[in-house]
Design goal:
Distance between the termini: 19 Å
Helix content: 55-70%
Oligomer: single chain
CATH superfamily: Winged helix-like DNA-binding domain superfamily/Winged helix DNA-binding domain
Shape: globular
CATH architecture: Orthogonal Bundle
Order of helices and strands: HHHEEH
Radius of gyration: 14 Å
Number of domains: 1
Structural class: mainly alpha
Number of helices: 4
CATH topology: Arc Repressor Mutant, subunit A
CATH class: Mainly Alpha
């Protein structure tokens, strides 16, 4: 395993896996807020996503902008093969922990 994942990173990777083709920033933020029982700051979310992408654990592709005035382009986040492996390894380690 390369660099150890923090709790928020593990939850974020698991959320991307669980949401699949619905893993946009907003959907991740909402799902994680429910999972950890607190609001997730937009800055914290995108900072963590950026770090995971720099480490090669996730990637993203742009989706079409929302058809409303000021609608922004959405990003769909996906686990890379390395991200899948890192998440599986981390979860297995947690399950096997004493």
């Amino acid at each position: 395993m390369s660099k150890t994942l923090g709790i928020f990173e593990v939850v974020l990777l698991a959320g991307i896996r669980r949401l699949g083709n619905q893993a946009t920033g907003l959907n991740l933020r909402n799902a994680l807020a429910i999972k950890v029982n607190r609001e997730i700051a937009v800055g914290q979310l995108y900072l963590s996503l950026g770090k995971l992408e720099q480490r090669g654990l996730i990637t993203h592709r742009a989706l079409k902008a929302t058809p409303v005035k000021g609608g922004r382009t959405k990003k769909l986040f996906m686990l890379t093969e390395s991200g899948e492996h890192q998440l599986d390894e981390t979860l297995a380690m947690l399950v096997d922990a004493p």
